[in-house]
Design goal:
The chain has about 325 residues and is of the alpha/beta class. Helix 10 links the parallel strand 9 and strand 10.
Length: about 325
């Protein structure tokens, strides 16, 4: 049946700090689409999930939509597969992170301080993943993203288990990290698994890095990136993507782009991902693209390195 909907609502689970939601696309809206509220890691009620999911699907079929989904660019009219299976899992329940990025959604959308966010308690994801597997909800070759907080600061053994779990189910793994702490678990995944590691550097110069990240770890991050890339050489399924999030009036200039590309080539980087800072993008996506962004993106595109785009910014950046 053809109707307006999105694949996230039908086939994705995002494990946030105290809830399960279908996507991360609209964290700033007053209303949020939730599958399960007040989630503590133990109360995954399959019946509640199915009932809530079907309620949202019925809203779309009737021609309306949940408040949080209104205006979302991911909604499209299609002949959707409504079967019950999960093909994407996003783990973002932990918030502790030694980085302090000026664009971090936890900081820009929360009233809590960085210190409070770093001490916020949450649940252990391991029994949650086991429960999903036991309920046969996970689709073959599911994509699993490790996104919450800094995964290299997870409790001992948790990151290792998540990578093992993904390997067991033949999942693709996408790991987001600041790159400040080096991880042997990530190194091993890059050597052997269907693993993509993304590290946002957003700069080529130390001064800009420290302005954006608000930590002094410039040399360490580039050194860790060099080592991670080295371990993908014999695994065609292992990738390290260095991310450049465009922040207008901070790093959208040729000088920064040149320094960034120079650093990437020095460490044999093969993949770059471009994005636009989401708060700015949300307000300006329907306006003319500034010349500063055009020039920066065009320079990076001409580097000879493989370029991809963060999903939300794809259409905006592809036309440059």
């Amino acid at each position: 049946m053809k109707f307006n909907c999105c694949d996230f609502l039908l086939h994705e689970l995002v494990f946030a700090q105290d809830k399960i939601i279908p996507c991360c696309s609209s964290p700033r809206h007053e209303y949020e689409t939730k599958f399960i509220k007040n989630f503590d890691g133990l109360n995954f009620d399959i019946k509640e999930y199915i009932t809530t999911r079907n309620k949202y699907v019925d809203m779309f079929k009737s021609g309306s939509a949940p408040d949080c989904c209104l205006g979302c660019s991911f909604i499209k009219n299609d002949d959707w597969d409504e079967s019950l299976f999960i093909k994407r899992i996003i783990i973002t329940n932990r918030t502790k992170c030694s980085c302090n990025c000026i664009y971090c959604s936890l900081i820009t959308t929360s009233t809590q301080s960085k210190q409070e966010l770093n001490t916020r308690k949450t649940y252990n994801i391991i029994p949650v993943l086991k429960n999903l597997r036991n309920k046969n909800l996970i689709n073959k070759e599911c994509e699993l993203m490790i996104a919450g907080g800094e995964c290299c600061e997870y409790p001992k053994g948790e990151l290792e288990f998540i990578i093992y779990f993904a390997s067991l189910l033949n999942c693709k793994i996408e790991i987001l990290s600041s790159g400040i702490i080096y991880s042997k678990a990530i190194e091993n995944a890059l050597k052997t698994e269907k693993c993509t590691l993304k590290i946002s550097v957003d700069s080529g110069r130390k001064s800009t890095f420290e302005k954006i990240k608000r930590v002094k770890a410039y040399e360490r991050v580039w050194e860790n990136l060099k080592n991670y890339i080295k371990f993908t050489q014999n695994n065609p399924l292992g990738k390290v993507k260095i991310k450049y999030i465009l922040l207008p009036d901070i790093n959208d200039n040729i000088k920064e782009a040149k320094a960034f590309i120079k650093k990437c080539k020095e460490i044999n980087c093969k993949y770059i991902e471009l994005a636009v800072e989401y708060l700015w993008f949300d307000k300006n996506k329907n306006k003319q693209v500034p010349d500063s962004i055009k020039q920066t993106v065009r320079y990076i595109k001409q580097s000879g390195i493989n370029i991809s785009y963060e999903s939300q910014s794809t259409e905006y950046l592809e036309k440059i």
